[in-house]
Amino acid sequence: MKVVCAGGGPAGLYLSILLKRQDPSHDITVHERNPEGSAYGWGVTYWQGLLDLLHAHDPESAAAVEAHSVRWRDGVAHVGDLTARHRGDQGFGIGRHRLLEILADRARALGVRVEYESEVSAEDLPAADLVVAADGVHSALRTRHAAHFGTRVHLGRNRYLWLGTTKVFDAFTFAFVETGHGWIWCYGYAYGGGHSTCVVECSPQTFTGLGLDRLGQADALALLETLFAGVLDGHRLIGRAAGEGGAPWLTFRTLTNRTWSRDRLVLLGDAAHTTHYSVGAGTTLALEDAICLAGALRAHPGPRPALAAYERERRAALLSVQSAARHSAQWYENLPRYIHLPPHRMFALLGQRHSPLLPYVPPQVYYGIDKAAGRLAAARRLKRWLGPKVARTVQARALERAQERPQIR
């Protein structure tokens, strides 16, 4: 089979690895429009479940990814001068540049052609049995056929900024700071090489009240360093280099598509779907897409039934994650509802922010119910059974409503 992949991110590179492992005779080319080594994004997070999947499907690249990752288990929330710490599941962080380097080297070792500063034309698809659009949320290949794919984009309310820092956090760190214009907060996690990712978020009112809509990058970073001095310990925040246009403030784009394939063109990763960054699942979902698509192409006699099976399986798997991401984003958009709770209670509800029930139950009442459920085995079993069902139902209805709204471009 001849495969052309647009996009040299984790999804496209890992798909090429898996397809070459399945059949070395496959002719596979990955096209990446940016220069080699120019990846932006600081670090990415993942959890043990993904690492287990990677070891099962390609032990060599999995071993390299694990070796270059940092680990943490604690979560820490700073609310003003108060702090709460929670012991949780083990998490991992790896630099995006390092992850792409590992996957590209592995792909090339297997015989994949990885071509940088090279684009796949959206107007005239290359001659191939399969063309994979793994070119991100702004996918040119998907946009060219947006009406067919039924692309919908929902813009979040809050503003956020993706930064790096030389402060190496020893836990997944949240810091909430109250200003005269409302709350501003950051998420920080280490990813290796003496650096951490630091994502800053705030409401639109705080964004304009602090003047962040008018400040240049240097002045904005200086202000943020002052606001988050308590967790940065004198370390600097790092934006993009001047030649890269500075670090942009964004509003999150939740993207869905009615269908994921068109003839021999298929969507993968962020080109097909996005989930809010606060659940830390973007890279994991992209790699899981690649694993599913490779498995479907192996299991079915031709691309058409394989693409249908891939879409069917991944849509079902994504429902609960998309619901969790939507409720997580809404939790932060409604931060004043929770921020004045005692820190240990606020942190507990921060951990429960994925719940579709939380927005409809008074926070103190929800906390009490959740704490009681934690002590009762029957209540825990009911919660584990009911939660995913409610999440899937709520998310399915949300997607149905989204399909009825006009597209945001």
Offer a few descriptive terms:
eight-stranded mixed β-sheet, alpha/beta, 409 residues
Radius of gyration: 22 Å
Low-confidence stretches: none
Coarse shape: globular
Q: How much is the average pLDDT?
A: 90
Listing every helix as H and every strand as E from the N terminus to the C terminus, the arrangement reads EHEEHHEEHEEHHEEEEEHHHEEEEHHHHH
Q: Portion of residues in helices?
A: 40-55%
Strand content: 15-25%
The first-to-last residue Cα distance is: 35 Å
Question: Got a strand count?
Answer: 16
**Number of DSSP helical runs:** 14
3D structure, described in words:
By secondary structure, the chain is α/β, with parallel strands linked by helices. The two termini are 35 Å apart. The longest helix has 31 residues, at 303-333. It has an eight-stranded mixed β-sheet with strand order 3-5-4-10-11-12-9-13. The chain has a six-stranded mixed β-sheet with strand order 6-2-1-7-16-15. Strands 8-14 form a two-stranded antiparallel ribbon. The chain contains 14 helices and 16 strands. Helices cover 43% and strands 24% of the residues. The protein is globular. The model has no long low-confidence stretch (mean pLDDT 90).
